[in-house]
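Subject: GH25 family lysozyme structure
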Amino acid sequence: MSYIIDISHHQGDIDWSEAVKDVDLAIIRTQYGTSTIDRKYVQNIEACIKYKVPFGVYIYVTFKNGTEALEQAKDFYNRAKNYNPLFYVVDIEESFGASVQKIVQGTQVFIDYLKSKAVKVGLYTGHHFYKPYLMDTVKNYDFLWIPRYSGSSSPGLKPNFACDLWQYTDKGIVAGIKGTVDLNQLNGSKSLSWFTDTDKKKEISLSQYEELQKENKQLKQELTEMKELLVGIKSNAMVSPAHKEDWEWAIEEGVIRGDGKCMNPTDTLTRQQMATMLKRFYDKFIK
């Protein structure tokens, strides 16, 4: 059986040579706010790359307003971007004393910043947190991830709210991981391949699009120049009507070797080439 897991340094050192047999997708924590960096995130990401385990990343946020949210969003993105994760998740479960309005504002700022980077973005929020903190009013994310535990390692009651990913237990057992781990399952219309990006072309940013346009324009210019060059070569390679019959005869009889298409009939003839042609003529017609 294969699993979708989410992990942090609380799982310790994972034996990925074993875990790869059980894991379809890993969601790796990079940090808790900006003050606590996950001690195993680099190790886990590099192992996923090595063993070809699809992975996304998440941050447990601690912001209390939009300014702090933007600071944490930038730090999160910059910390993970060079590893090219499949998606980025903002995990919001606590208010840290902030008002509902500030939490909603900060969450939206966080998500909008990530979306400006043309990446896939997920929102994780507690089952108890979703409605009271108006997470249902937050927009612009690509998928919603909600936990609801059964009390065992098996799925129980699904979340009361429509979501794409359901974290159903924190008591999962997976090869290569000592102790328990969070397990998740798909809960909507999105397939596993949607999360692993195997059925969807990657989106590109506006700057990337403009760069591609620039490169495309340059390629078109180079292609035009090549066509003009080929026209010139073709023109030079044409035999004048007065010599066409003689040229074709020389080709056919082998006095001039080749099919005539790769040779330029207007090229200068060297003495050694003339000697070769005369020898061929002698061998064929006189000897």
